[in-house]
């Protein structure tokens, strides 16, 4: 493994400065003065520092760039939610706390526990039960039946099914590939996609299909299978277009949202207008009108970001997602066993495709499918699942580092004796 | 493990490509469509800004104010009612009822949103109400009002354009509307006075379309242009006959004579010999069946629908059947002919002045495309000169100037009492006064006797104004 160290201190300060400035602008702009805003700011900044401080202190082998990026994306999301409606931000902050706990659990679990390879049968069963239960007991929101009420909370099971799918596929595509294993993988992915399609959760369908194809290619490297799966995907998409009217509506609205401005095209049109209004440098925080875009705090947060912070900032956000994905893939390449590598690739793919699908949908490059923007969109289940993915990636990174340290222990000892405290600042 | 790593490396490459594509797409789509999306009447930011900014003025090309904001923040318009109506479709209305015009299309400038960041910050510190920029239009208020009056009691449209630069000197649509009395409550669905007939009207072109067909002949079958044809007054098909207007029999004619005399029968005979696909191709190059995205205005898509053989195919070639177009589109074709085959983008904005009156942005001429060869354009010009000299467009002739033109008389209804639409399109061939013009008088009668004399007067006025 290549050990890199960063001047992370200055990046931490930059994120802090960004958050403090943004929250100050929001607080000063609120009239009457909204006490919730400084409270959210203190909560957000405190949580960031505590999380970053403890993780880097307890797990020096963690991957700092991805950790910092996630904190930055979450901060932008929280700032926009505060700007749109502070109530959302407070709930989002709560879920961020839960997410961070989840991340640590996933991190430790990934690092210490060894049974993940054997979880495929329970995970397949759990996935199908959850999705079927959502179909039966779920409630419809924004045109998709993908929510289920548990006590006071609404949960979106598909968010967790996607992570389980990564584990199931990693264990099935790992060493000792056999026909029954491949068929089981096909069954799992097919059944999940069918159930999600019935729930009209097209974004999740696309995400799981894409992730499965990428993982299949990673494990086999077969161009034939790649072509075959893309072919099946195309046929499947055509069939879905023919069979389901809601798919046809999505495509029609994508082709010309202005034709039905007052109906189904409203959200897309307002999103495009929002992005275009921002120009290169944005209208400035609090100066836009993101409230006109439906679901702006969740799926459409990218339009709000572009409107108030500008296109350049929007492209930077896309760049951050790319860096996160690259870090995830590097973690996969550093892994010492193929199962870990596949899980890391799967996790990186989930974030990659999810951010791509929603941003491309908002910009009308692809038909819009309801899916959240990782770490930035409002939504408890979505945020928790993103933090779990981060935890899994960090766990694998730490594990890689553990092994590396064992192998080169004596070299390390000498280096550390020589340079002592300066280690963090070299290179 | 080694193989796995190399697969993963390939995946990483694909991810990077995916994100680069996404970024490039966003930049591209915003560059192309951004201004249009932003200027949409549905944009909440614009309505929000209108409350917080003193909107800038819209002036004509000689800085006569067509729309401004008075001390009490109310929008004011040109004092003369006829001028108000004549320029109404170009100016638009601030409430966005017509949802077209510069009030909407140039809102970015009028509301000062394009101004620099420092001025905005300075403004927000001093608390002064920001003032938008002034948009100087390319149109002439005087010429517009003159053309509006010339249309008399008829509805119709007049387009005058500088064919070298694409600047629109007049874009008149009658009836216009008066912004000072326009009332949201009076507007009902489908009110046609809000439609800019000059750019969004969808008319049957009739014989002015012959210019497109003649261009197709010159571009694809130049040998047919030299041949002589005989007009006997009608050409029979299995499902009907093509006849010349008013039972005329033109005798022996070449393509040039057929344009000058507007002979349907010769065009029908030529149409039997050229490839149908070639006509479709030329029509597309000239702007039919495509969607133009101009930065200053919206133009309705013109449609050329070829019929599959029979009499309708011949009618389509002379601008009847299902062909529709806008006066602006007709002007673009004429302007391209006058400009050696290069079509210029029609423009309504000349320059943008900041609040100190400094022109910080001057718009430049933009070419849409070369739509025909220079030699085809030259031959078409000769045909149009001939039409003015000895053909149907005689009454468009101007002393001391070389004028080329083409008339059209479009049948719009089986009902004879309703009258045909009278068309004229032409140009003054002169370096100092490079004007292309199109006139349509709805239900006005024959193009040669109604539209051509109007065009002559309007061109004369434009020359006198030294625009």
Description of the molecule:
The complex is a heterodimer of chains A (427) and B (467). Chain A is built from 16 helices and three strands. With 427 residues, chain A is mainly alpha-helical. Chain A has a domain of 288 residues. Chain A has a three-stranded antiparallel β-sheet with strand order 1-2-3, with helices on one face. In chain A, strand 2 and strand 3 form a beta hairpin. In chain A, helix 1 runs parallel beside helix 3, helix 6 packs parallel to helix 8 and helix 12 packs across helix 13. Chain A is globular, with a radius of gyration of 22 Å. The mean pLDDT of chain A is 89. With 467 residues, chain B is of the alpha+beta class. Chain B has a domain of 238 residues: Beta-lactamase. Helices cover 40% and strands 17% of the residues of chain B. In chain B, helix 7 runs antiparallel to helix 17 and helix 11 packs across helix 16. The model of chain B has no long low-confidence stretch (mean pLDDT 85).
